[in-house]
Amino acid sequence: MQTTGLGTIHPMAADPTHETLAGELADLRTVMLIGAMDTGKTTFARRLAQAALAGGRRVAFVDADIGNSTVGPPTCVGLRLLDPAEPDAALERADALHFVGAVTPDRHILQQVIATAALAERGREAADLVVIDTSASVSGVIGETLKYHKMELCRPDRVVALQRGSELEPLVGMLRRFFSAEVTVLTTEPGIATVGPVERSAQRTAKLKEAFAEPLERWRVRPTVFAPTLPAGLDLGRLDGMLVGIQDGDGHCLGLGRLEYDDGILRVLTNAGEGMQGLRLGSVRIDPDGFECRPVNLRELIFGV
User: Fold this and answer.
1) Quick one: DSSP state of residue 223?
2) What is the C-alpha separation between 119 and 64, in angstroms, rounded?
3) pLDDT, tens digit, for every residue of 7-55?
4) Which domains, ranges and CATH numbers included, belong to the chain?
5) How far apart are the first and last CA of the chain?
6) Which of 94, 130, 181, 190 is deepest in the core (most CB within 10 A)?
7) How far apart are CA 154 and CA 148, in angstroms?
8) In whole angstroms, what is the distance from residue 15 CA to residue 31 CA?
9) Taking the complete model, does pTM exceed 0.90, yes or no?
10) Alpha carbon of residue 116 to chain centroid
């Protein structure tokens, strides 16, 4: 057993097909992983990254699972740059974030596609191999639309689709029909564990707590610093508890913040305030005690419709 920054690897437990394919793909430029929940996307992505690092290649790991993230906090797409000279570097620490502001792709397809494509492009500028670990949304209009546009903008050389049965056949058929990138379908490894909704929620809460680790500061903010723009006359008290992305002046997310409204004053609680130029309003409200996410419809919040 070998332990690295990419996690604990059990050589005897690995499916030889998965192991061999990871080695073959390690020389490519961009590889995208797709699959439903608990099918081993992140496990394969780690294995692929490790194979590339062993070959002396720098890896950009793009984590596009905004609900149960590995790199960085939930509600964001995260980028981690891995160097062969530092094989034990932790995967969880993000080198760059792109704020989506939600934990599911419903109503946020545009934001998630742009976030993934933007960090994939940054990864290509900084690394030899870009590994894109996508969310578990793979079916229906939302799942297929999300993956279609990610293919359009991220332009992977190869797609690896992991499935337990035949649930990916419609999506794989669509991708093969509309794109030239080869799609390789793998069966999920027997050892991949399933994680229940309660445990996933607990993991998300823990990651959000990490994102709000001390030292925290409260910054007074004006209504004019938000995207989307707040309408004149909005009751700012309605923003209390809302999650925001702390943005610099170059379109980059510095971290997360939580809005607080008290006695007519709006503030943002964050540990990423240095360099803050604006706030991107998310679509979740954060419980300050348990750090649980409650989805919010922004249109209803801002316009009351």
Assistant:
1) G
2) 9
3) 543 343 457 789 999 999 999 999 999 999 999 999 999 999 999 999 9
4) 2-187 (3.40.50.300), 215-303 (no CATH)
5) 56
6) 130
7) 10
8) 19
9) yes
10) 8
